[in-house]
Amino acid sequence: MPAGLGWRILTVGRLTAHIRDLLAGDPLLADVWVEGEISNFRQSSAGHAYFTLKDEQASIPCVAWWSDVRGWPYRPQEGEAVLAHGRVAVYEPAGRYQFYVDWLERAGVGALYMEFLALKARLEAEGLFAPERKRPLPPFPRVIGVVTSPQAAAYQDILRVLRQRFPAVEVLLAPTLVQGEEAPAQIVRALQALNALDEVDVILVARGGGSLEELWAFNDEAVARAIAGSRHPVVTGIGHETDFTLADFAADLRAPTPSAAAAAVVPDGNDLRVQVWTCARRLQQQMEAHLARSRGDLQALQRTLEARSPARLLAQARQQVDEQERLLRLRLGHRLDLLRRDLAALEARLQSANPRAVLARGYALVLKAEDGSLVRQVHQVAPGDPLRVQVSDGEFGAQATHVPQPPARRDEKRGDIP
Amino acid sequence: MTDEIARMSFEEAFRALQQAVDALESGNLPLEQALEVFERGMALARRCAEHLDQAELRVRQLQWGAAPAEAPPFAFPEDQEPPF
Q: Which of the two ends of chain B, N or C, has the fewest CB atoms closer than 10 A to its terminal CB?
């Protein structure tokens, strides 16, 4: 048919987009369960899975992203009948429709899985698996509760890892069956028993690898609830890396294996040894630096002290004393000179007042010899009285010879010197 | 090593050790106190190493089922009156 007016011509891209939108608008294709057989299974290095689902009539190419694949309870095997969930959409570059699988499980256990998924959805809706419920693990647990079977290899793995990494802990084993009908109730009892003990720091719930049915006890609702409700943080290590159980979802931390769970609850002893050693070295370095600093301070102080030492002060004081003494002597000397001069002046004045100086001019002093009294008046002497006469250079004896008659009442007034 | 340090768990000793390092590195302790902190820190480091080198992992097992042993009935000796 020739192209012409009236015909609408689309690009390949527009046509493919139209088909894409058609498929995307179909509610069945957006959320569909498909049963089939796996073939051509291959996985990219990033973990994405590419395979074909087929039956006798048809086949459909399938893609599953790693983010989904990692959560599957099942490793796809070539030729196995499986039940897949996902949506159908167009892969535009190749011009084909594909089944984008987000969940894959073995066919036949489908009913079990539906039950599992329903329970998982219910608990999830309840918030049992919420990330904000997850608690941090104690960095240095002392008592580790272990919920597992004492006969299991998983238990020996746990003990081996703990011995290797950090043996300074105590393991408190709450023995339990880990598979079979009795197992869920026993696991719950073990969790409750460990929760009753204050000294427990963290709980390990572990079981080695096994078939899906063997791991089923850990998909039990009571077990999941007991783990979520534990007052001590719970770490699970159940099955292999690819096994996810409800217990794992409910735990504070899910480890891929029992050994990994043991490694997750204790610190690495070698790492700690290095840290302790580093601390000790830092202490020593700091102390040495401190001592060096103190030594420096001490020397500085010593120098200051020497500068202000008493000996030096004493020398200074001595010098000051000397200086003061010198000044004192100077002033004292001056003062003495003044005093000496005053004294000389006084002496001169005294000298001038000395009666003996008069004798040098020819006067004489007459004293009565009997009592040394000075004769000032005639009536003091009678004729014959012995006298002493002092002149400038000494004295000599004399005697009164002639005494004029005294006036009246001379006798009464005798000795009365005016 | 003081009794206090000898009784410490690894965690307690390790945290105390880190505090000692911090205190010493703050650099404003007087010498005498710094020496005390240093000696305590070294003792704590030894205690931590002891924990890490401790050879034996201790393992206990909870016992199920066995009913708790009944306490023997309490009685005073016959020749003695109760003190009340």
A: C
